[in-house]
Amino acid sequence: MESSPSRPSPPARALTPVSKVLRLCLHALLFGLLALAAGRALAGPAPGTGRVVAACALFAAVYAAGVRIPAVHRSPRAGALWLAGLGAAWVALLAVSPDGLWIAFPLYFLELHLLRLRWGVTAVAVTAVAAIGGFLAHSAAATPGAFLGPLLGGAVAVATVLGYQALYRESERRRELIEELITTRAELAAAERGAGILAERERLAREIHDTLAQGLSSIQLLLRAAERVLEPRAPAREHIARAREAAQDNLAEARRFVRALTPPDLEHGSLAAALERLCSGVPGPRVRFSLSGAPRVLPTPYEVALLRIAQSALANVVRHAGAGRAEITLTFMEASVTLDVVDDGRGFDPASAAAGGGAAPGDGGFGLPAMRSRAETLGGLFTVESDPGQGTAVAVTLPLPAEVLR
User: In this predicted structure, what is the pLDDT of residue 1?
Assistant: First the structure.
């Protein structure tokens, strides 16, 4: 009596697969009751003993055949036909022996298991009425037990099956939730590892640039200054020239390290190319990128800061602004570089957002402060202009370092 998950429109029993132990217990109960009815008939010889034994044997044969036929468990129609044959054999047994009343209880579970819930409850009710009628046909006295026994047995069977179905559905929901939780935790752990790797790469690139590269650049400047004050034929000039070459080589190597630690978005092109790719991949509003001025090669910390600020600002546009259009502009000026992110969304009150610590309603309190911190770390200026219903403009201006201006 196992349900098949592959057949269309499975009945309610597909939700409650009966375990092997329960099936064996049901088989044992039914055959035990049949043996008891046949034994009682044989123990008290009467004219109808042969009919009782024959009816028990017929019921057992029909039941055993249905258990062994695979179509009964795969097709609702075949299952219903088997139950109809089983019911006919039971009615025949009930007609010749009052002990056939006991078979009603295992029949309840079979009907609820093989039929849809609505038809199963109807079959249980018909079986209970038949059991009551059979008892009254064999007994002249109509007692309350003759009515309450089959009815209570049917009610208990229905309540048991419904409770089992509810427990099974709850177990399945919990299993699915646990699987989803495990998958989500694995994805979260992978995302955290990736974010940690990127953050460490950015930190190392910034540290190398701000310490080693800047130090080597300062050494070059000092050596050049020392070279200018020496006599043309001074013996130290050759040593200073070699020191300058060594510093230049090591500075180039340090810059190669910095480029190797560049975030993936900047690995395959310039900052402008990375921003253009960012605009093309934004879901929702139409985002356009424009470049103004003569592009310059910026130090990695500058490019990383501008890219991350653009990503954060666009994330706010997608999540909170409800904008139809947005534009990112990267402007190179004589002594500075500016990034502007403008949208035509719903806007907000920057004063209230600053008081709440967030970039916009629902931002979680980290958007604007994080962008402002990146800009100020590099000595830049970060501004936000917005009004409710008037869109938002985010601008960051970074002064170009001396090595870029040379």
Answer: 40
